[in-house]
Prior knowledge:
The protein is of the alpha/beta class. It has helices spanning 2-12, 18-28, 41-47, 60-70, 107-120, 203-212; strands at residues 32-35, 53-57, 75-79, 91-96, 121-131, 138-139, 151-155, 158-170, 173-183, 189-199, 216-223, 232-238.
Amino acid sequence: MSKAIWHDLECGSYTADLTFWRALAEKVGSPVLDVGAGTGRTALALAQEGHAVVAIDRDDELLSELRDRAGDLEVMTFVADARAFWLGETFPLIIVPMQTIQLLGGAEGRAAFLECAAYHLESPGVLAIAIADELELFDVTDSTVPGPLPDVVEHDGVVYSSRPVAVRADGDGFELERRRETITTDGRLSTEQDLIHLDRVDPDVLEAEAEVAGLRPASRMEIAATEDYVGSTVVMLRA
């Protein structure tokens, strides 16, 4: 359960892209394959609009929470790595929200995913991938500058706090660091560091990699930044 709490706390409140994904699903049709679905932020938003959704993620604890939340909605889940999955069906629309493509371990990981996606994409069909090619760097770990405020939630009397403390350039990408704190019902405090590496990739590179996998560049759309989240470019590809 703690994985789902942290996932929701750090990612679940983002809604700026949901209008885009809803409009795209309405235009292209379903079933929709949601890659890196987590606890269902996007999958549930689409299912609530009447779309059939297949959600994949490599973490079954997150998908278990998604299944509980879906109830009678038309959502199927599969535990799978985005770089190696086989579902036995094709989709008119495959979506990869929230920079999931940048968590796959560089060009080799992206190539493996694109091959899987091309195999699962109907013709004609749309593969839509959100990327953030530039992040604003900061580091408050050794500074008196307060930095961003923490995200905080209380669950069953336990308080969870996640504070962004750094976004650093990291060779071929970016390192995102958060400080997670938990305060139990009896007042005990525990702290842990959470590090995420995002690969650096721009739309031109992604489109070139997609062409190797047999996909055609179609268009690009922009999702504006919010006060708490970076903006993204959605690269649209066709079978």
